[in-house]
Amino acid sequence: MTAHRRLVQLAAYLGLGAVSLVFVYPYWWMVVSSLRRTQEVMTAPLRLLPERFDFTAYEQIGRIGGIPLAHYVWNSLAVTIASTAVAVLVTALAAYALSRRPKLRGLQLVRYGFLLTIMYPYMLLLIPVYLVMHQLGLLGSYAGIVLFLSLGPIQFFLFDQFFRSIPKELIEAALVDGAGEWQVLWKVVLPMSRNVVGTVTLVTFLLNWAQWFPVIVISTAPTTYTLPAALLLLNTELGASFQAILALATVTTLPVVVVFLLTQRRVMEGFAAGAVKG
Amino acid sequence: MNAIAAARRTWNERLFYLFALPFAALVIVFGLWPIAQSIRVAFLDSYTALSPDPRWVGFANFETIFADPYFHASLRITLIFTALSVVANVAVALGLALAINSPLVRRGSTFFKLCIFLPVITPDVAAFIVWKAMYDQDFGAINAALAALGLPPMAFLARADSALWAITVAELWKHVGFYTIIFLTNLALLDPELDRAAMLDGASWRQRLVHVTLPQLRPAITINAVYALIQFLKTFTVAVVMTRGGPNFATNFVSYYAYRRFDEALYGEATAMATTLFVLVGALGYAMYWAAERRDWR
Amino acid sequence: MRFRKALAAMVAALLAVATGAQAQQLTVWHDLGDNGIRWFNELNEIYRRTHPGVTVTSVSFPTDQWFGRSIAAINSNSAPDLLFNNYERVIRVMTQTNNRIVDLSSELAAAGDTSFITEADRRIATYRGRMIIFPVQRVQMAFGVRTSWLQRANEQFPSTWADVLRLGQKIRENPSGGAPAYGLALQAANPRDLIHMLDLFMFGTGLQHTLINPEGRIVIAEPRHAEVLKEFIKAFTEYRLVSPETVNHSFTDMYRMILGGRAGMFRVGDWNVRGWDTGTADLNGDFTLGPWPAFRQGDQNAVVIGGMRGVAVPENAPNRAAALAFARFLLSREAQASSLNNLGAAVRSDIPMDGLSERRLFFANPRGRLVAYDFPESVHEFYPQLEAEYHRRLLAAIASPPRDLDAFISQTSTDLQAWVDQRRPR
């Protein structure tokens, strides 16, 4: 019995270990290949360590399209953080309103409108979004990008689910005690929501960091590009360095990987919670 | 007294409307309005679509795309790929979740979860650039590994008959972690008593899985399947980065084909394709959800 | 409608950052990458000496983004002051923006001595009766071969297609550097990519058209054309001259094959040489330039003029007068010298060329035969769709090679001719 169990356990560890290796190998390959000459990568793609650390690609991407790399990093941070803040605030308030007063006339329409929106293949909104941004005077502005990214796919569900789980009695008790709706929100609901706000913030940050298409559509110049959008700038017909592309891919990926590793529990719970009762 | 209460009620209602307003504005301005514009363009002549006085052409754009054999093929490819991916993602995620959840691997389960979930938060453009290079028939890491193991090389993206599979695998790598985590969350919510009772009755591991665990996971399977359906029907970035719809249109997904039409300035046809896909996503998603829910009611 | 406007006004008022419009800030949109940005910065410095109030900034986009953006910007009245790109791309922008590109013919007269612009250049630059660009750079493309690989194979620079095939086979059978290698680097993922590659071989052997002539006749089944086309398809299939991945390759991947040292023969554009010449680049100067191979005896090998890059002004450019003045400046000797230095190409030949390497002189001061593209876009409005249609047929033939290539070519020719006849105005 125990021997058999041991064997099964060993097999399980080996199997899962192999799967995990397959999942993280592309990252290793990306980082190592960004430190090797393209010629070396193409002749020996499997090498686990560079023959010598070649940082020329990282020097090459010091400026992309005439703009310093630091500027793209800054854009990525600013756009992601700002859009996360707006998304959390706006979505939380709406989800709260909808869960407290689902019967209020018109409020359910907001939910259905949102559901329709997330079903549309949004890369095909290219031209309409461009026109809308133009009509609003937001074309080429950070504000346009930030506002567009504030409408995320799962944040609403996360908040909706959380607010519905708050016991009605709790709020009613506060109201009976003479508290106004503002006070209920500030003194009762908000303190309870710290956790979910943190989770949604993380999830939104990670999702918005990866966005590239809306950034390209709304920008009028690479000055407002984020890192993933800049990654596509390297693909030009006048010449492209594969090593530089991998170096920028590494720079783009690394921050989210670090944030994720530091906060993994929360992030995974968040992604799961958003879908459990979507 | 009554008047005060009524006033307070109206004030409160206004307050809740106020709370919902910014979100509603975002949904309207960046969701519904562009969608409506996009659907409108589907009924316009491409060459005048962006001008101040566009020409209406009725269903002509839809007639054009439905007469196009490449669009038929594109729809077929999208549906095959979606079916493959939904089944593969749900099945693999379920398998991984059950394995990770097993008491046998309690130590290290966090590590496994981390590895499997990592691709979900990785920017897709970066991830697929790497996969494309790794898939290269002559210069890629995967064939080099196969050769090192004494296995024959594979064509992956280079051939029409293997490209869809290769993309399915890359997409699985990117997304399966998400579905795995949902299963794991649901597994943690299961009632351990049922399993224990079945064990006392002498049920085998397999019997317990089929008769105890899986039935309880049914809602999670539904949710995952519907999510995966919506996600994979809209597949886009992977085609842009890895194949440009090729080779020989083998990965020409509807969303990519429509995008290509945009590129040729055939805005009417492009949005007609987008609208068709939109209807498809809505209808299939709803049908799947409805079917699964109805079964649960019984 | 009113709601929409109110909402628009509200959001705009809340968020629009006050942008103080600077009257003489000129913006150029191009797709020349860092080299282009460096060039326009240099031009800005030169121009400022004579026009102190004017600053010129340039923005580079990948080509496909440049298209969508330029078209949308002109259509929605948010155009830049100047567009800089290949002539046929400006045509596409023009056709999709209701002709809103300024006619420059009267401006050319004001630009002083422009005798260096030939009658052919002028013809190319004219579309729908307007001169839509000032030609600024003649884009030349030659055939490049890895010098050390030539020596290894004990071969001369290939001058016929047979030479190319022989060298290609030697490269494949005895690759340098411990990994597979291919004779040629091509690309085929996008319609324009594949047909661009085919163009190079067609024009390089002295033909005048690849797909369609100005009268609207499909030419692919004519004997000389058919021969090039057949060999081109076989390069993918029977000869295995290119990597099987080529069907998914676009520019990035083609450059990866060239710079990664896994292809022996490749396209070299005049803009590539500067970077590939120097010791720091992957290629490390290990390449020889020459004209494209000849397919038949009696054909003259040619270097291909693959396009004309030039500057265009949208009708709704914010600073139209200043933009036109700057466009004229691009034809000046100083601007042209800067163009040659930064991008390897110009239209004037009366500019200093001392200090240029031999390979750069190959383009800067061409001695051999030059054959220019036919620019079917400028004649046939339906051309982009025709090209996409043709691309489909070629991809199908590459994916599953037809047993009888001649039959395939004549069938394709008939089908495409029918397609064209349906769309041609009578």
Summarize the structure in words:
The complex is a heterotrimer of chains A (278), B (298) and C (426). Chain A is mainly alpha-helical. Helices cover 73% and strands 1% of the residues of chain A. In chain A, a hairpin with a 2-residue loop joins strand 1 and strand 2 (67-68). By secondary structure, chain B is mainly α. Chain B folds into two domains: 1-41; 59-297, MetI-like fold, CATH 1.10.3720. In chain B, 75% of the residues lie in helices and 0% in strands. Chain B has helices at residues 2-41, 60-66, 69-101, 109-117, 124-135, 141-148, 160-188, 192-200, 205-233, 237-243, 254-263, 267-297. In chain B, helix 5 packs parallel to helix 10. The longest helix of chain B has 40 residues, at 2-41. Chain C is of the alpha/beta class. Helix content of chain C is 45%, strand content 14%. In chain C, strands 1, 2, 3, 6, 7, 8, 9, 10 and 11 form a nine-stranded mixed β-sheet that branches. Chain C is globular. The two termini of chain C are 43 Å apart. Chains in contact: A-B, A-C, B-C. At the A-B interface, helix 1, helix 2, helix 4, helix 5 and helix 6 of A face helix 1, helix 3, helix 4, helix 5 and helix 6 of B.
